[in-house]
Amino acid sequence: MPPSPVPPRPDPAERRAEIARWKAIVERYQEPHAGRASWQLVNTLGSYLAVWWLIHESLSVSWWLTAPLLVLAGGLLVRVFIIFHDCGHGSFFRSRVANDVWGCITGLLTFTPYYHWRGEHAIHHGATGDLDRRGIGDVWTMTVQEYLDASRWKRFSYRLARNPLVLFVVAPLVLFVVLQRFPRADAKPHERHNVWWMNGALAGLLFAMSLWMGFPTFLVLQLVVLAVAGAGGVWLFYLQHQFEDAYWERGPDWDYADAALRGSSFFKLPRVLQWFSGNIGFHHVHHLSPRIPNYNLERCHESDPMFHEVKPMTLWSSLRSLRLRLWDEASKKLIGWRQLRRMRAERRRAGQTPPSGS
Questions:
Q1: Digit-coded pLDDT (tens) for 196-230
Q2: Taking Cα atoms as reference points, which of 205, 201, 229 lies closest to residue 215?
């Protein structure tokens, strides 16, 4: 596959004018709205708590009635996480205190320590699409050459990590139930303390819910809800930056606006799924300005033709992203295992001897 031509560097003056233009556009939608935020809390948290009450009542009727309620609770928990996510960006309410309070409350429901996650997610936003700053808050992505140069064990680990069953079923539960219980090594003191306080709060929640529903019953139900929400949430997160024409560049060539508009997807969902996912499908807008609350993302997207240039991803087209595994720096595309094998065969025919592996 021939390498893509390197685009010419934009004129600095034109680039400054372009940056000033998009900053002026997004600034109009960065202002939080107390009414919209409050209503979102009511219809999301209220619905989530109501569904848990229905789950409790359904247990005495039939598990066949409980099962769809668990799926509904999982979908609502995804929306709860979007509120948590906005609070972490300081965009949900104008008040920092309000954001922090509701961030901690929604963090308890999503099993995620608010301050610790906020620090980690800020790294993600500052490094998305930068090949030299991978590894925190993103999906493990190797380049073709890194994979070919890796040991057999590392290649096996990578294939396992990118397997859909592991990525969307096993990994979310491990992340939210296990990994979020421990601070990362470089966490700041207040982030580290936040993890321990959250673990204590979760123990209290577990105790209270066990008194109401019984420990084994609640544990099973909560794990199912987390599994549904985790699978949906990780699926959304995966699609936000894992698509064929995504954006990855080395540090000196990395550009913030390009990483947002070219490296973050526009996932066009049916209205009901857009509601459950808290408009996060407008991820290109979100990465351009994380200060825009989720309830303003669609308005911002519709406000200027610049955003319409981003090709939308649909539910059907999103399935194609599952076959993509490695970033090819030559073609500047994500490719799959079949393309890798074809590439290796072409290298052999050309007289090159690539490292062993597939």
A1: 999 999 999 999 999 999 999 999 999 999 999 99
A2: 205
Question: Cα–Cα distances in Å, from 187 out to 97, 194, 284, 319?
Answer: 22, 10, 28, 35
Phi, psi of 33 (to 5 degrees): -125, 115
Q: What is the pTM of this model?
A: 0.90
pLDDT digits (tens, 9 = 90+) for 91-128: 999 999 999 999 999 999 999 999 999 999 998 998 89
Here the contacts of 201-210 (C-beta below 8 Å, separation 24 or greater) are 201/108, 202/108, 202/111, 205/108
- Rounded Cα distance between 161 and 177, Å, is 18
Q: Give φ, ψ of 190 to 5 degrees.
A: -70, -30
* Residue 326, CA distances (Å) to 140, 156, 201, 223, 346 in order: 10, 14, 40, 32, 17
Task: Report d(CA 263, CA 113) in Å as an integer.
Answer: 27
Cα angle at 102 between 97 and 104, to 5 degrees? 95
**With the CA atoms of 137, 145, 327 and 336 taken in that order, what torsion angle do they form, in degrees rounded to the nearest 10?**
-120
Residue 357, phi then psi, degrees to nearest 5: 125, 175
The whole-angstrom separation of Cα 287 and Cα 292 is 9
Give the span between the Cα atoms of 186 and 84, in whole angstroms.
22
* Residue 327: other Cβ atoms inside 10 A: 22
